[in-house]
């Protein structure tokens, strides 16, 4: 009888506990990529830790930001991950709240570039990537971004479209190589426009490039480090260029939605995601390069991601305000010079 | 068939309500976006759209490729359909099966296959170089030619099937009679076959033209952003620019062009019939 009593009491307590846990819900908005890995490495362990329910909304950044704007008065999302420039855009639209870094125990472990990328206290970087040029080492020599437009190379180049995340950084570095370092990217867009008929394609999805490289349709393409791994599996001599102007790249950041009713939980989740353990697992699964400087990975993993303090320091990122203030102008300049 | 009209209408009602709720209403809502500006009805979105030279180029390219694919499909389709109809029944069934076969394969797989075939190291370029027609491989991928080939391959079966069913209804003696009376093959086609199979041509032509105008995967993969078509531009407007007004304008243009093609083809067919 006693046994039965304790058992029922335990069951009751468990039920009450889980009912309470279900009351706590955190809604996050993330990129749609690698969700199986994120569920296993981040979402499920966090739910177990906080005893709460995680609602995950996915989509591209345009859709997700549009949704946050539409629900401004009554926010649905508690935290989101977006690009640096989109974070500034959200901050300017008054959609974000200052992140209380004192609640993030892992904050001090982050590389400096990830700490407060936009300088407004509204975002924290959780991953970054280098952008450089993947190229056939037996066919061409790439020592500068300007080499992409050389006569014997250009007809075997796939260049990122300006609408992709890789487009503006690649143009930015091309501009530097051409000696025209202006935020409007005019010189670089014009140089690409002059060679538009020779360039094989202006790609939108980097996944397509592996096939084009395999078919020898292209010999060189600017890509983000996150799409590098499949190239190494091709039985071809493909190298990662280290152009003399340096590498560029991008960073993704976490933001806190203004008016979120679960700010403590959102901070707890951010801290969990930034922890050495979670960042290491994400790096080992080749999902995201770590922004946490304490992450240590094998040489093999390091070769496939953007890793290490030196790399982090050397990345020439486009400042968010430059990207944001010029985005429309870049697109119309591109459409005029390259798009038709 | 039915005792009264009410009974027939009652049977059609569920389908009609379903179509109205999940198709007509959303389409009208979506398209109305393009005619509104600050709660006023206006055509300014259309004026804006056509004032940009990129949009005009894309519009004309879509129209041109749609027309060329339809024309090529009609020419090849008539020859193929006529050859198939003339076969004995057993062989005819097999050939129709072969024509339909590509329709059972996903357009994504079919289009990806074209990347391999049309590439610099693909069989087309290899064959051209082997017979000495060129020393350097041609650039076919990511050009209008590639999109044309991809679309033609995608929609040709629809034209062939429409023309086979039309040709099967052609009276068996019509062609021999015309030949006996001294008509050459061109006259036979122009004065006998074409007028008698116009319905098939209108159905096939509308399917091919509408399909070519609205296909997304083929122009996206084989043309990329160098060969923008209205449908790839529409996608860009929604996902990159978040510009639903412009997307609604493009959607409306595509619908109007599809209807216009159907009306035009019917006109052409009946005009031929009168001569």
UniProtKB/TrEMBL annotation, chain A:
Domain of life of the native organism: Bacteria
SUPFAM superfamilies named in the record: Periplasmic binding protein-like II
Nucleotide-binding among keywords: no
Record key words, sorted: Periplasm, Signal
Molecular function as annotated in GO: thiamine binding; thiamine pyrophosphate binding
GO cellular component, one term: outer membrane-bounded periplasmic space
Signal peptide location: 1-21
GO biological process: thiamine transport
InterPro entries: SBP (IPR006059)
One matching Pfam family: SBP_bac_8
Record's protein name: ABC transporter substrate-binding protein
Organism field: Pseudorhizobium pelagicum
From TrEMBL, chain B:
Keywords: Cell membrane, Membrane, Transmembrane, Transmembrane helix, Transport
Localization terms from the record: Cell membrane
One CC-aspect GO term: plasma membrane
Coiled-coil segments: none
CDD domains: TM_PBP2
Transmembrane segments: 12-31, 65-84, 96-119, 140-164, 176-194, 201-224, 244-265
Keyword rRNA-binding in record: no
Keyword Nuclease: no
Membrane topology according to the record: Multi-pass membrane protein
GO biological process: transmembrane transport
Domain ABC transmembrane type-1 residues, every copy: 59-265
Family named by the database record: Belongs to the binding-protein-dependent transport system permease family. CysTW subfamily.
Protein name (database record): Spermidine/putrescine ABC transporter permease
